[in-house]
Amino acid sequence: MKRRRFLSGLAVSALVPPAFATDYLSIEGAQKALFPAADRFVPLSLARGAAALRVPDARVAAMHAFTAYAGDQLVGYVVADAVIGKFELIGYAVGLTPERTINGLEILWYRESHGYEIRQPAWRAQFTGKTAASPLRVGSDIANISGATLSTTHVTDGVRLVAQLVQATTA
Amino acid sequence: MIAAKGFLMHARHPLAVALLALGLALPRAALADEAALQKRIDALEAQLRALQDQLTAIRADAKSAQASAANAQATAEKAVAAAPQAAASGTAAVAAGNAAPPASMAPYAFPQIGPNTVLSSYGEIQYNVPQNSNDALADVGRFVIGIAHSFTDRTRMAAEFEVEHAVTSADDSGEAEVEQAYVEHDFTDHASGKAGLFLIPVGLLNEHHEPTVYYGVYRNHVETAIIPTTWREIGVGGTWHDDTGWTVNAGLTTGFNLSKWDPNSDEGRESPLGSIHQEGQLAAAKNLSGYAGFNWRGVPGLEAGATVFYGGAGQGVDFAGKDAKVTLYEGHVRWTPGPWDLAALYAHGAISDIGDLNATFAGAPTPVPATFDGWYTQAAYKFTFGGGQQLGPFIRYEQYNTARSYVGLPVGFDVPTGPNNKATTLGLNYWLTPGVVFKLDYQWLRPDDTQSRFALGIGYAF
Predict the structure, then answer these.
(1) Mean of the pLDDT values across residues B439-458?
(2) How many C-beta atoms surround the C-beta of residue B170 within 10 A?
(3) Which of B229, B244, B314, B360 lies at 20 to 30 Å from A132 by C-alpha?
(4) Domain ranges in chain A?
(5) In B215-322, where does DSSP find H-type helix?
(6) Among A residues 137-166, those touching chain B with beta carbons less than 8 Å apart
(7) Which of B217, B205, B223, B219 is nearest to B437 (CA)?
(8) Strands B390-405 and B421-433
């Protein structure tokens, strides 16, 4: 019982939103960066994919997904999410083409003392062209960043989950 | 037609939209050519799909908000229950309604003890059996608790408290120490500064020394004997980095205190700088030291860097070594293509202006070395399994000499330099999860092979 109370307390305290974050890009900014030609971003529910993949509701509720249109033309999908790096939260957004191929990864915010190298274009470019069928794992098709293993691993795991959810939702 | 468009824009139910759209489209289709008809149908389908997306999202949001309002506590417990699965995927969820995540999208299963305050810990327990010896040892090598707190979006503190060898008292071998305690501030997105007791950014291990990070039951010899990991000083430091992979570090700190040198102890031969470091404990600070270094990580998976540290070691004490200076420089490279993890490092240390001091140590077994150095190269391969499990066999070869040369020894009181130690380590790291590692290795040591050893270890970090 004590353990249960402790865990509940831990969860409640964890639910306190971090008041501070170093913001590099808003979601709107990421949308435009990932799909410059799009003029509409329509909210997209990932519930179907989550049910198919048995991803917990709480995990999917943490994401903001959009369908991107240029006029009436579907041009892709954008999913904004956040993961914990080592101690702190990392916000990121993934763009996927209508064929559900990743076309970009943007870092929205980052406030760890180490591991800021994940913002480097060269590291983020590794995700371009990958799909839900790709390994999308550090040490496989994504290179690690020395000294930022947790940040790179957790962001990569997040991108993999996003790719799989979009695939399962829209295919 | 204009009226129909207006209805389409304001219709709330997608089926109504669809029926109306089809109703309007079909009669006209009889009069239009096939291509034009298809174009119109495509456009209407796109509009219908967009409206369906909107409706689904609105329903999902409404359902989520209702559930949250009804029972916030249940949501919290559910989050905890869901944590293992999220952790298995390497993620902990938060949401991003805007750049700063709203409360409904906060993380779960995270050791947070208050807003903007996080708790961390790492520890390791080792067991080793030296070759040709009955001196097997089991030891709680270290247990560390850390805390970090963000005061604002750009100002934070971090501290670590460490206990080595389990028990600390006047009659025991253990140590209790503050390993880090500093405040850090981001001046810009690319430049930050810190002040306090912090780790010198040198080599591959000093700043990243958790047991889950390095291969082998024990830290490598070069970054223990030549670079005195975990090496920290009190001072101020700055870091600048850009988006092309460059990171530059520089700082002004306390340094070493040569007046602590004990020529009758083996400590200086085990680690020259380790025997005269001050670790922020009433550190003599007459002579400050400076460091500068860089790392380049412009190619994913590659890190190459170098650091130099220089400073006086006399610290205003009136003794024969009052003008002594310590210089340490190192270069390192690490490359992690795919499952491979390849690393190499060279470190060189020098203590100058020690001739007069060594003259006073005539006959003692451990005079102050003028130079000391070492290098290692390491190769590892990581096999990845489900649930975050990884298996990492590795091999490491090291050479290090803690007394490469001496100066100032009186004639007839020469002390042999060296030895030129060689260590080959073959072992295995097994990560049960990324935060828990089991290790085993065998280490061949030369020239003193009586110290060759088999070792087992367990470590964790979060």
Answers:
(1) 95
(2) 4
(3) B244
(4) 22-170
(5) 267-270
(6) 137, 139-147, 149-150, 153-154, 156-158, 160-161
(7) B217
(8) antiparallel
Helix (H, G, I), strand (E, B) or coil at A130: coil
Helix (H) or strand (E) holding B118: strand B117-130
Amino acid at B344: A
Quickly tell me which residue has 């340094």 as its tokens.
Answer: B255
The closest alpha carbon to A65, from B95, B13, B12, belongs to B95
| Segment holding A104, helix H or strand E | strand A102-110
- pLDDT, mean of residues B338-345: 95
Distance from CA of A79 to the nearest CA of B (A): 10
Looking at residues B380-401, what average pLDDT do you find?
Answer: 94
Average pLDDT, chain A: 84
Q: Which chain A residue has the Cα nearest residue B119?
A: A87
At B334, list the tokens: 């690490």
Residue of B nearest to A156 (CA): B90
Q: Provide the sign of the torsion angle of the four alpha carbons A49, A55, A61, A66, taken in this order.
A: negative
**What CA–CA distances, in Å, run from B413 to B267, B293, B320?**
20, 39, 18
- Are A158 and A142 a contacting pair, CB within 8 Å? no
Token pair, residue B446, equals 């030369």
**Per the CB < 8 Å rule, is A146 touching B204?**
yes
Bridge partner residues of B295 (DSSP): B247, B305
Could you tell me if A171 lies within 8 Å of chain B, comparing CB atoms? no
State ipTM. Answer: 0.73
Q: What is the pLDDT of residues B167-199, one digit of tens each?
A: 988 888 888 999 999 999 999 988 999 999 999
pLDDT in tens, B48-92: 766 766 666 566 555 544 444 443 333 333 333 333 333 333 333
What's the average model confidence in pLDDT over A93-114?
Answer: 91
Query: pLDDT averaged over chain B?
Result: 83
**C-alpha distance from residue B90 to each of A53, B139, B273 (Å):** 16, 31, 39
Q: Encoding tokens for residue B218?
A: 């024990």
> In chain A, how many H helices and how many E strands?
6, 5
Q: Do B407 and B351 touch, CB atoms closer than 8 A?
A: no
Fill in the DSSP letter of residue B4.
H
Q: For helices A2-14 and B72-88, give the axis angle rounded to 10 degrees.
A: 90
Q: What is the pLDDT of residue B284?
A: 94
Q: Say whether the peptide bond before residue B230 is cis (omega within 30 degrees of 0).
A: yes
Interface of A with B in 111-130 (CB under 8 A): 111, 113-114, 116-117, 119-123, 126
What 3 state SS string does B290-318 have? EEEEEEECCCCCEEEEEEEEEEECCCCCC
For residue B169, what are its two tokens?
């008292």
Q: Where in B297-447 does DSSP place strands (E)?
A: 302-312, 325-335, 340-352, 371-381, 383-384, 390-405, 421-433, 436-446
**What is the rounded CA–CA span in Å between residue B279 and residue B144?**
16
